[in-house]
Amino acid sequence: MSDDIKISIRNLYKIFGPDPQSVLQHVLDGTSKTDLLANYNHVLGLQDINIDMKAGDITVVMGLSGSGKSTLIRHLNRLIEPTAGQIDVDGEDVLAYDEHKLRDLRRQVMSMVFQKFALLPHKTVHENAGTTLKVRGVAKKDYLPEAEKWVKRVGLDGFGEHYPHQLSGGMQQRVGIARALTSNSPIMLMDEAFSALDPLIRTDMQDLLLELQQELHKTIVFISHDLDEALKLADHLVILKDGYVVQQGEPQHILLNPNDPYIEDFVSDINRARVLRVRSIMEPIEAGNVPSNLAGDVGENDTLESVIARSDGDTSHTYAVKNNDDIVGVLDMKNLVRALVPREASEAGARNY
Question: First vs last Cα of the chain: how many Å apart?
Fold first, then answer.
């Protein structure tokens, strides 16, 4: 992770219709999405989006169908032009780019992994993986070795001369990832890249992405409608509804502190024990103030589920929390149990009591 902002989005609006600029002021004055359509025959796609995406992080943008998430990602490489706002990449406003600089942005700075794979059916796996370098004018003899390297890295060693129709859906998406990696671009845009895959294959692809990210530290913008996937992948989570940001931040914080009834509904059915990490509920301590009578130690990134299994469900235990070899906090099992109950349910129980 890094504190450097790779992509900065400011006051971004997108209105679809015959004359978006003519109705922009109505939106700025507070006209709702419903009223904009009913009274002005325009659709509000994005409303006042403000997001900073850090270099080396996975930013997941999620929401239900129609929330604006795919519209948003297509603004980053200007496949869609905004009605108003600013998008900076490495401190430069990409909305001011001319055709030449925009082409360079798409070819060298941002790569894209699509939901539908978008492989060329008449090209081999190696040729598909090398497409991004080919369009830059790199000779086949030069781009094939790079393509072969990444095809092998995503687990398709031995399939380089196969064609897309000879591969399963999961294998085809691995080729899509290899193609994005072959481009060596610092930013990867992934638009619901795993949503067309079967659940087990989807899990494998998520694990592959996290494994690659540990090594490569790309800036990844990942679009998803699946909260489990978002919580697994995200360093920074952005939740959209009707084109605006309802809440954004560190996923663990959002899960423990939903700021809106919409978010509370969203997270209510999540298996919190499997998703929450020890670091999110531990009590920090200063060096040398470690309490006695500890039942052992756990890692700060261990799931609550693993701690429950270790404790055999005994709520009397307290554990030291370690970051590598350093003790950074303590975990009281009673606090763990409380964290498993969604806030609204906990508050309702307290009122009834």
Answer: 44
CA dihedral 247, 253, 257, 260 (to 10 degrees): 10
Cα separation, 308 vs 301, in Å, equals 14
Q: pLDDT of 150-200, one tens digit each?
A: 999 999 999 999 999 999 988 998 999 999 999 999 999 999 888 878 888
DSSP tag of 277? B
* Range list of β-strands (E), the chain: 5-16, 43-54, 58-62, 84-89, 92-93, 110-113, 187-191, 219-224, 236-241, 244-249, 283-284, 297-299, 318-323, 326-332
Assign 97 to helix, strand or coil.
coil
Q: Is the pTM of this model over 0.70?
A: yes
> In this structure, are residues 29 and 70 in contact, taking their beta carbons and an 8 Å threshold?
no
What pLDDT is stored for residue 347 in this prediction?
52
Distances (CA, A) of 197 to 6, 42, 62, 169: 30, 34, 18, 7
Residues for the chain: how many in total? 353
Q: Tell me how far apart the alpha carbons of residues 146 and 340 are, in angstroms, rounded to a whole number.
A: 46
Helix, strand, or coil here: 230?
helix
Hey, is 95 helix, strand or coil?
helix
List residues bridging with 241 in a β-sheet.
244
Tokens standing for 331? Answer: 């975990």
Rg of the chain's alpha carbons, rounded to an integer?
23
Q: Half-sphere exposure of 69 toward its Cβ, with a 13 Å CA cutoff?
A: 27
Q: For 310, phi and psi rounded to 5 degrees?
A: -65, -35
